[in-house]
Amino acid sequence: MLASALGLKKGLNIILNQGENNVFVNYIGRTFNNGKVLADYKPMNIHIEGGKVNGYFDLTKGNTNEDWQTMQSDGLVWAKAFNMKGRTGCYGTCLVLIANAILLFT
Is 99 helix (H, G, I), strand (E, B) or coil? Predict the structure, then answer.
């Protein structure tokens, strides 16, 4: 499935996700050249009905090898694809490839 973007509106937004796909919600505040930072914006409450939480590895939050082990033991690593956030972008990778690379380098 190709990625698509939907603009959210105030109030109820219904997004149907069919199959084994990930849904990402990006909260973007306009900060360029206006003197604001993301902390200046109000938090957004989001409720997702159904589905299953899939964890992601986040270098920007300081995730470590121990965090990766915890994510696996907590059952957050289950989907065919796994998401990682680095310093320059977000990546979705085939979980089998990650597992093979871990075996290769350990």
Answer: helix
d(CA 96, CA 80): 7
85 within 8 A of 67, measured Cβ to Cβ: no
Taking 3-state DSSP, the helix, strand and coil percentages for the chain, each rounded to the nearest 5, stand at: 25, 10, 65
Report the chain's C-alpha Rg in angstroms.
17
Alpha carbon distance 63, 97 (integer Å):
20
Total-model pTM: 0.54
* pLDDT averaged per 10 residues, the chain (length 106): 69 79 74 81 80 80 89 77 81 76 66
Q: How many angstroms separate the CA atoms of 14 and 8, rounded?
A: 9
